[in-house]
Amino acid sequence: MGCGSCGSGTPNGCKSNGSCGTNSCNRMNAYDWLVNLPISDADQACRVIEVSFNNGSRKDYYRNSTLQFFDKGDLLTLEGVSGFDVGEVQLTGEIVRLQMKKKGVNEFSPEMKRVLRRSTDRDIEIWKQTKSREKDALVRSRAIARQLKLNMKMSQIEFQADGKKATFFYIAEDRVDFRELIKIFASEFKVKVEMRQIGARQESGKVGGIGSCGRELCCATWLTDFKSVNTAAARYQNLSINQTKLSGQCGRLKCCLNYELDTYLDALQGFPENADMLRVARGTATLIKKDIFKNLMWYVLQDSNKQYPLTIERVQKIRSLNNQNIIPEELEAVDITSSKQKEVEPEFVDLVGHITLKSLEKADKKRNQKGRDQRNQPQQRSFVPPQKQQGRQTQGAQKQGIKQQQPQQKRPPQAGQDPRRSINIKKDPNIT
Question: From the CB of residue 178, how many other CB atoms can be counted at a distance below 10 Å?
Answer without folding.
Answer: 20
